[in-house]
């Protein structure tokens, strides 16, 4: 019995299925899914213990545009041109990574147990996502429309995307844009910062002999206050930070404003630069607090912590009083305050011979972790169990 060819409709269906399969393959190859290489890690408890009396460098990782906030859930997040790599804070081994072949990283920050990153795909920073800091598992993704030169900063419960024309505030634990605001017409934003005080903007307008410092509520976007800061002859005004106090460097002075009304809380003379404590010194106006010769700001307990050119101040935000002052190599660990033997709050301060645990209220030494060869200047300290993480301008060092 002769075999009869299939009906025409079968050939049509088969051809259609092959075409659909080919289209699917082509779409996949051209999609961001195919261009993404990512791994995840199992969740694990945070390491216990405290730093030993003598520590040594256990690992290091080079990075670019390192965020101020890069330690979360026992991971140290180091960005690259197109990637995020999370290292175990104790061992330095890679825990997970996320890489894109079709997009460049605009910036990232680690807050609230998450790593929030924004990627540039077509000239604009237009794709944002959040990854679980401990595991690397994606939590949310959303489209944005930010300028291609946008920078990313973060603090608890707020992520700030900034450019010279305006800012956008994103809820890190959701994917919603809380609010946005633009620079005044004809003006530009020279610096931005986000911290416990809110979102601070430094604005420069043509024809003005001063820059305008403004503070906004990070949740509602409501303007709290604004004040003009005179530009010193032959100098400039840069925004240092917005944690506990809103601080700018104007010439040779640190001017600290109260977050509630913008009144001056303190005016601290900057130490003379010695070429050894210049920190990041990138002066890029990106709001990371690392410009103007490496002036760094953070907060712990009820005190603002300011570091500049080898000197650390602990300042009472309510009175502007300097509670204590010490020589230091950089900024103490502020996110996870430690405890003294008596149970008092303490911070690990990077100093010439290593890390010194100091009582937050008095500045008195309560312990130490010596480092052979000492520490480089201009770093930010974090602590995770027995590990001390030291963030410099272009790399991260782990000590244990």
From TrEMBL:
Pfam families: PQQ_2. Residues 273-291 have a biased composition (Acidic residues). Residues 256-295 are annotated as: Disordered. SUPFAM superfamilies: Quinoprotein alcohol dehydrogenase-like. It comes from Geodermatophilus nigrescens. It comes from the Bacteria. This is Outer membrane protein assembly factor BamB, contains PQQ-like beta-propeller repeat. Residues 67-183, 213-371 form the Pyrrolo-quinoline quinone repeat domain.
């Amino acid at each position: 019995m002769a075999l009869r060819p299939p009906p025409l409709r079968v050939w049509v269906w088969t051809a259609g299925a092959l075409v659909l399969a080919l289209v699917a393959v082509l779409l996949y190859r051209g999609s961001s899914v195919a261009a993404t290489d990512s791994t995840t890690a199992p969740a694990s408890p945070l390491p216990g213990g405290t730093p030993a009396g003598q520590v040594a460098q256990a690992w290091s990782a080079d990075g670019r545009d390192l965020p101020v906030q890069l330690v979360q859930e026992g991971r140290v997040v180091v960005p690259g041109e197109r990637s995020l790599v999370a290292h175990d804070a104790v061992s330095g081994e890679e825990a997970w990574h996320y890489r894109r072949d079709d997009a460049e990283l605009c910036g990232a920050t680690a807050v609230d147990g998450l790593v929030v990153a924004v990627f540039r795909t077509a000239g604009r920073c237009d794709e944002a996502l959040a990854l679980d800091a401990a595991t690397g598992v994606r939590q949310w993704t959303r489209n944005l429309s930010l300028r291609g030169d946008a920078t990313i900063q973060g603090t608890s419960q707020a992520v700030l995307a900034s450019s010279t024309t305006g800012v956008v505030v994103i809820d890190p634990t959701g994917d919603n844009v809380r609010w946005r605001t633009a620079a005044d017409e004809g003006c530009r934003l020279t610096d931005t910062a986000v911290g416990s005080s809110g979102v601070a903007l430094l604005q420069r307008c043509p024809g003005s002999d001063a820059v305008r410092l403004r503070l906004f509520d990070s949740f509602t976007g409501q303007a709290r206050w604004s004040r003009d800061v005179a530009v010193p002859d032959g100098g400039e005004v840069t925004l240092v930070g917005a944690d506990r106090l809103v601080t700018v460097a104007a010439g040779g002075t640190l001017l600290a404003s109260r977050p509630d009304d913008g009144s001056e809380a303190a005016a601290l003379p900057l130490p003379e630069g010695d070429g050894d404590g210049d920190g990041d010194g990138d002066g890029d106006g990106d709001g990371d607090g690392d410009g103007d010769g490496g002036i760094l700001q953070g907060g712990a307990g009820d005190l603002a912590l300011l570091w500049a050119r080898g000197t650390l101040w602990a300042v009472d935000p309510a009175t502007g009083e300097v509670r204590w002052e010490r020589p230091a190599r950089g900024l103490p660990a502020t996110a996870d305050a430690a405890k003294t033997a008596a149970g008092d709050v303490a911070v690990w301060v990077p100093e010439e011979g290593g890390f010194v645990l100091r009582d937050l209220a008095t500045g008195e030494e309560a312990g130490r972790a010596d480092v052979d060869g000492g520490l480089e200047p201009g770093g930010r300290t974090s602590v995770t169990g027995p590990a001390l993480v030291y963030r410099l301008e272009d790399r991260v060092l782990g000590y244990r």
